[in-house]
Design brief:
The protein is α/β, with parallel strands linked by helices. About 30% of the residues lie in helices and about 25% in strands. The strands form three sheets. Strands 3, 4, 5, 6, 7, 14 and 15 form a seven-stranded mixed β-sheet that branches. Strands 10-9-8-11-12-13 form a six-stranded parallel β-sheet, with helices on both faces. The chain has a two-stranded antiparallel ribbon with strand order 1-2. Helix 4 links the parallel strand 9 and strand 10 (about 190).
């Protein structure tokens, strides 16, 4: 099969397209024919040896895949050949290839109305966002939800799920173009944190009360502003640090304002309660079928252009998700 191989740690340009043997599914694993592989920030880290998992060289990068089951490993009863599934890859590698191995426990069925490329853009963003808002943030109808990094993969998913759950959504991003996309995905209010004072705008938009729930995938200065702008009983969801800065929280703010800071880590939550994970995706599938969720892909790249896809993600210009597909040949969509 064709696959993108990392032979030595380095930047995306050091990745090579190669012909390698198909992998074989072990116990509890499933082999799929890949239709789409989502591009995620950790892909850029793992090929440079900067991720917490350091696979032995050579390896095939790629965290997130969707496609059709070709073969099941020992003990797998939940899927059979021909099923269409989406998942993270086993051991967080192997996705940028024509075939990939996933663990059956993490995989979920692709909703019937969704194609495989869209599924690769859907799985981790919407899965993380739903887990964060519902299980960790207990978002309720009528509450105000502030979304940092609002035009990113998780950001747009959070806007849509937040609206579907009945929240008023304030989207925060760095450019007008990104805010236009956030608006198109349902945001009620828009804040450009580069040209406006984030703290002042959140105060204005919430009558001085602050956010009931804040989804933070960014960290850095935006987190500092929001840590001072949470409503009483609010939930500040700590999901990621795309800015590269892990902020410090002055815990006196929790005491003074009476809100909670809540850590969100989706992968371990899936492993802890796979049945809950499948239930979350049944609900997400229903929202998708109702037309309430519209995953955005700003690019679909053929396998041989995987390096460009990872570079595009790092450029910070993109909105929504980037997907690599062994089925695509021209890189456009
Ligand atoms: N906790 C979990 O379970 C979990 C699960 C999945 C992903 N994550 C993490 O969540 C974060 C966001 O994921 P995502 O898929 O939404 O990423 P994404 O699509 O790349 O979006 C990240 C957003 O962060 C903002 N940003 C601010 N400073 C940035 C910088 N220096 N470089 C790049 N982006 C910057 C950008 O928006 P502006 O330009 O508008 O600022 C960008 O749209 C990542 O760090 C990821 O690793 C966590």
């Amino acid at each position: 099969m064709r696959a993108i191989v990392c032979k030595e740690m380095g930047p995306p340009r050091s990745l090579r397209l190669a012909e390698i043997p198909s992998p074989e599914p072990g116990s509890g694993e499933v082999l799929i024919r890949v239709e789409g592989a989502g591009v995620n920030f950790p892909d850029s880290l793992i090929i440079e040896g900067k991720y917490q998992v350091k696979p032995a060289l050579p390896f095939v990068p790629g965290f997130e895949v969707a496609g059709t089951v070709l073969e099941i490993g020992r003990g797998v009863t939940s899927f059979k050949p021909g099923d269409r599934i989406m998942s993270l890859t086993a051991n967080t590698v192997g996705g940028f290839a024509e075939e990939a191995i996933v663990t059956a426990e993490q995989a979920v069925v692709i909703p019937g109305v969704m194609d495989g490329i869209t599924a690769a853009a859907f799985y981790s963003s919407y899965g993380t966002s739903y887990h964060a808002l519902v299980e960790r943030g207990h978002l309720r109808q009528g509450e105000t939800l502030v979304v940092l990094g609002a035009a990113g993969g998780i950001g747009l998913a959070t806007i849509e799920i937040g609206k579907a759950l009945g929240a008023r959504v304030i989207a925060v991003a760095s450019t007008k173009e990104k805010l236009d996309v956030a608006k198109a995905h349902g945001a009620d209010e828009l804040v450009n944190y580069r040209s406006e004072d984030l703290a002042r705008r959140i105060k204005q938009l919430t009558d001085g009360k602050g956010a009931d729930v804040c989804m933070d995938t960014v960290g850095g200065d935006a987190f500092d502003s929001m840590s001072r702008n949470m409503n009483y009983n609010g939930r500040l969801l700590i999901v990621g640090f795309a800015s590269g800065t892990i902020p410090r929280l002055a815990v006196n703010l929790l005491l003074l304002k009476g809100y909670q800071a809540v850590g969100v880590f989706w992968g371990p939550a899936v492993a802890r309660d796979p049945e809950k994970h499948r239930e979350n995706f049944r609900r997400l599938g229903k929202l998708y079928a109702e037309g309430k969720l519209n995953p955005r892909m700003s690019g679909v790249y053929p396998l041989e252009r995987t390096a460009e896809a990872i570079e595009a993600l790092l450029s910070r210009r993109e909105t929504g998700k980037l997907v690599v597909s062994p089925l695509e040949s021209d890189g456009s969509r």
